[in-house]
Structure formats: C-alpha cells, structure tokens
C-alpha cells in the first residue's frame, strides 16, 4: 500500500484523536516499518490493518466506521496531491464513471506498484450510478467515504447504499443517487 495512504492516515489520527493516540497506535503495533512512513514509500497492507485495529481498540470505534471516516479524509488528500487527476471532471457522477478507466489508470502510471480496486459500472443515468467494487483488500468502506466526499467536492450530496456480494467485503455493489 502506498505511503501517501499511510501519511494521510497518520495525519487524520493526529487531527481527530490527538498525538497521544497516534503514538499509542504506532507503539503497541510491533510494526515492520517501526511506524516510520514516507509518502514516496510502499508498505505492507497488513501494516495498515494493524494500525486501524490498534486505533479501534484505542478509541472503541468499530474498524469499519474508522475506515469510512478515513475515506472521507483521504479524498481531499489525494485531490490536493494530484490535482491534475481530477481537474478534468466537473460532476461527481462523471468522476465516478471514470475511476476505473481513467483515474486509477493514471494512478498506476504515477505509482506502478499501486494496488488498486476495480469498479465495474452496471448502470448509469444523469442522476445515478451502480457499480461493483472488487478488491482482495475489502476496503469498501474506504470507497464509501471517498465516493461521499467526491459529491461534496462538487458542492453536491448523494444517497449511497451498498450490498455485500461476498461476505468478506471483497465484492460490493454500490447504488449511488445524487440528491436534488
Ligand atoms: Mn483511489 C486506493 C477508491 C479516487 C488514488 N482507491 C483506493 C482504494 C479504494 C479507492 C477503495 C483502496 C485500495 C483497495 O480497495 O483495493 N479512489 C477510489 C474511489 C475514488 C478514488 C471510490 C473516487 C471517488 N483514487 C482516487 C483519486 C486518486 C486515487 C482521485 C488520485 C488522485 N487510490 C489512489 C491511490 C490509492 C488508491 C494512490 C492507493 C493504492 C495503494 O496503496 O497501492
């Protein structure tokens, strides 16, 4: 998993829960990287799982809710670090429609070792989109947060529902309807 995801995560933990919580989740982790991350590095996905599990124990907030909150936080981080990737879009549904064929293709050029999910579009109209998230990492709540923030980015909101097609969250169908 890319370093930018880790550095954004640590930034979120510090700003939402404080430096002491951040220290605690790194310390009690016995992490391979010893809790040292750079935005240009790449780290084992299991290390992110450990950090989130530690944060959940520390804050008593369920892991899924923390991953969703991180998705909300991460969108701005990605958009600010890579403005060229999203500047081509002027609607949230247009952006979502292009994650698979444009956005993540571009990301793969920036970071050849990026491990990205796939999004299969099932249906799209002017105000809604249905798509299936697939990834061995099962980070569908991260996708949920990112999608919600994409609407906010364009000054809009949406009603987002999802259905686990596989119990472990590696395949999840999203139904997204733009409000208003
Ligand atoms: Mn994208 C990882 C969904 C927009 C760059 N992205 C992920 C993951 C999800 C995801 C979920 C976690 C990996 C996984 O599940 O297997 N991404 C989205 C969604 C949107 C999105 C739903 C839009 C909404 N992503 C973007 C944009 C950028 C970007 C915009 C860049 C400007 N994504 C990334 C990077 C990773 C990632 C970088 C991390 C890959 C890695 O760690 O190897």
From TrEMBL:
Pfam families referenced in this protein's UniProt entry, alphabetically: HNOB
Domain Heme NO-binding per the UniProt entry, residue ranges: 2-161
Gene3D superfamilies from the UniProt entry: H-NOX domain
Name by which UniProt lists this protein: Haem-NO-binding
UniProt cross-references to InterPro entries, sorted A to Z: H-NOX_domain_sf (IPR038158), Heme_NO-bd (IPR011644), NO_sig/Golgi_transp_ligand-bd (IPR024096)
């Amino acid at each position: 998993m890319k370093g930018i995801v880790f550095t954004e995560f640590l930034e979120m933990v510090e700003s939402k829960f404080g430096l002491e919580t951040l220290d605690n989740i790194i310390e009690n982790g016995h992490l391979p990287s010893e809790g040292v991350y750079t935005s240009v590095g790449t780290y084992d996905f299991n290390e992110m799982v450990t950090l989130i599990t530690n944060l959940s124990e520390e804050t008593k907030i369920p892991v899924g809710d923390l991953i969703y909150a991180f998705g909300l936080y991460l969108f701005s981080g990605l958009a600010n670090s890579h403005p060229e990737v999203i500047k081509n879009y002027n609607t949230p549904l247009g952006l979502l429609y292009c994650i698979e064929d444009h956005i993540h293709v571009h990301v793969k050029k920036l970071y050849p070792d990026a491990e990205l999910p796939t999004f299969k579009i099932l249906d799209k109209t002017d105000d809604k989109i249905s798509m299936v998230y697939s990834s061995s990492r099962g980070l569908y709540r991260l996708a949920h947060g990112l999608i919600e923030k994409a609407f906010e980015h364009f000054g809009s909101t949406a009603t987002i529902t999802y259905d686990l097609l596989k119990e472990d969250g590696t395949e999840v169908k999203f139904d997204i309807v733009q409000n208003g």
